[in-house]
Every structure is written in structure tokens, then in C-alpha cells.
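Shipment paperwork, digital attachment
Item: protein structure file
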Amino acid sequence: MTRSRPARAATALLLGGTGALVAPTLAARAWTASTIHPINSPRLRPAAAALVLGARVWPDGRPSLFLRQRVEVAAALFARGLVTQVVLSGSGHNREGLDEVAAMERTAVAAGVPTEALLLDAFGVNTSASIANAAHRESVIVCSQEFHLPRAVALGRRAGLEVQGAYPPLLWRSHTAIGYAREAAATWKAVLTTSGTRD
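Attachment content:
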């Protein structure tokens, strides 16, 4: 059955809206693709520091899976000799009143990173803030999930950093799908504002 003209118009509007929503994300991916790699990639180059971006912490102080993975990526970079310093950047007092950075520090030490190699940034309240706080460094490898890195690396480039991205093995679960979906809106916000958005 041939669809009516209003139905065709609605479909076209929906497709056009979807295209507009994901356009900045696709642009960020195209711009940063050559510098974002899985943690075991030989294409990662040495940098001054690993920059770990904050994420959820559970009420008992444990890092969420995503946060633990980010710290473990940085620990792997340190173990490989690709970085000599690990910057743990998150909120020292997040919306739930929890300390993301303290959880990150405990996880990093447990993963084998010596305390003298750790630098704590308790003012990394969002991706843009973490990037801005690290902008004085010569180079960084941003550690986060794959869905998050195109925006983070693009922000780093915009801040004048020599920046790469490293991510843990992909986990296909509901939170990952939500992460990809949220990045579309977050990337639009990063385009339209200078203050960034909450991770």
C-alpha cells in the first residue's frame, strides 16, 4: 500500500531530525578516528600523561564498571611505558555527594600505578573541565569508553592539546547503548557551548 503524503512527510521529517542530531557526532568521529585506539593497539604513541575521565561511583565508594575500566586502561598505558603520569580527573563531590577521584585513586593503586605517578584533579566536573584542566600539558592519552572518546578527543584538539584516546574492550550491554545515544546530545551541547556537559 502506498503511504499517504502526510506519512511520507513525517518519515522525511524524522529522518532529517535524526540526521541533524547525529551530525556533530559523526563529524567528531571523522576528525578523531586516526587517534582513537583500543588499549592493546600498537598505534598508541607515548604521551606525557594518561587522562582518566570521571564516571559514576556507587554509594559504598566502589567505582562503577565504566570508571574502573577507564582507570585500568590508564594503568595498562603506564605498565607499557607509554605514559609516566596518570591524571585522575573527576568530581571530588559529585551530585550524589561522592568522591569520584578518591575511588579512582584506590583503583589505580590496586592496578599497580604507584602513588607518586598519580595526579588528582577533583575539579573535573565534566569532560570539558577535565580537558581544560589538562590543557597545559604537552600531550595526553584520554582514557574512556569508545563512545565517549570522539567528543573528548575533539575537545582536547580544540584546546590545543596533542591528544589520543584509548578505550577498553567493548561491552555490548544496555549502558553502552545508552552511552552512544547520550553522546549525540552531549556532542551537540559541546558544539553549542563552551562549558561542556556532564559525562
